[in-house]
Amino acid sequence: MIIGILKEPEGEARVAFLPEAVKTLIDWKLDIWVEKGAGVSAFSPDEQYLAQGASIHSRDEILSKADLICGIQPLKQSEIAQTRPEIVLMGQLDALYNTDLTDFLLKNNKTAFSMELVPRTTRAQSMDVLSSMATVTGYKAVLLAASMLPRFFPMFMTAAGSITPARVLILGAGVAGLQAIATARRLGANVFAFDVRQAAKEEVLSLGAKFVDVEGATEDKSAGGYAVEQSEAYLQKQKDTIHEHALKADIIITTAQIPGRKAPQLVEERTVRSMKAGSVIIDLAASSGGNCALSQPEQTIDVEGVRIVGVSNLAAQMPQDASKMFGKNYLNFLKLIIKEGQIHLNFEDDIVQGTCVCHQGTAISPRIIQCVT
Ligand code: NAD
């Protein structure tokens, strides 16, 4: 069976498998076909793939002959049309929101798995690309902010006077937020964090940050540990509290998301305009509507000396470890669907079912079925 690894599109530096992961696939007696230069942006040249037993092919050859293609970003529709009828496509397809692609896969009787659909359960933790990539993102967001800040992070007592520690406010203490807290603390900042889920409070405190409490949040136990939409009154109370904290902050990192909804707006324009010049806001939710009223997706803007960075794919800026983690998640998932060198899809398994967008044109994941009906 041939597994294809293609070069990701422009702007995506990660690769689905690094050479070290290819070695495992070869041990499983699979043929690994790698597109020329697929790993170069993740600092893995073709020779390293060859050394692990893979072979190098053209993109067209892989598209037309592979049995399974594992990627990160989705393929173009014209490329999907080139694949074999029995192909199994895998990637982070954003299948619930990229409805053009999902419709195309369904209409063309394809079989596809979308890794962001992996259920957030204990058994699926080792396959959870959302958590892996959020870990990279939270870490990188702090480094980016630190490099832009015209001040130190830690406290310094020097012969040239004392430096007070930077003050960092993290909005949303999920996987990315908690990693951002841990990273900012390691750099010596004074960290404050806020989340609507009370469960996040203990985790924030255990990382040495202070929890900003805004009472009266709505929680829903059936939401699988995720946040739910809040009332207008609560959101306003929250914005007022954030405003007070923002006046003293040097950095705000926003990570607040609600699955399937526009990101909640937490930082108002008046808040940005009241912040100290030189402060930095990193809005990780910019592509889903933004947590900051002024952020623009994939742009850095300057509002009276406050720089706002709207960024959605920070994981691509750390392609080596991000690819390593993505590949490990893939290997753990593939163990569920590859037996003795062949694909066996068992839709009784909740992880296989939950992650499968469609099988030969039939929607499989309950979340996709809900979307298409
Ligand atoms: P996410 O990316 O959907 O959201 C990020 C954070 O934003 C969440 O903590 C959410 O509560 C918060 N948020 C939403 N609205 C907000 C608002 N108005 N104000 C402030 N914060 C707001 O979430 P995520 O990081 O992917 O995961 C969230 C939670 O899901 C985790 O902390 C955990 O409980 C659970 N989870 C479980 C598993 C597992 O069991 N395998 C894996 C990952 C996550």
UniProtKB/TrEMBL annotation:
Any one Gene Ontology cellular component term annotated for this protein: plasma membrane
PROSITE patterns reported for this sequence: ALADH_PNT_2 (PS00837)
GO molecular function, one term: oxidoreductase activity
The reaction(s) this protein catalyses: NAD(+) + NADPH + H(+)(in) = NADH + NADP(+) + H(+)(out)
Superkingdom of origin: Bacteria
Protein name from the UniProt record: NAD(P) transhydrogenase subunit alpha part 1
Keywords assigned: NAD, NADP, Nucleotide-binding, Translocase
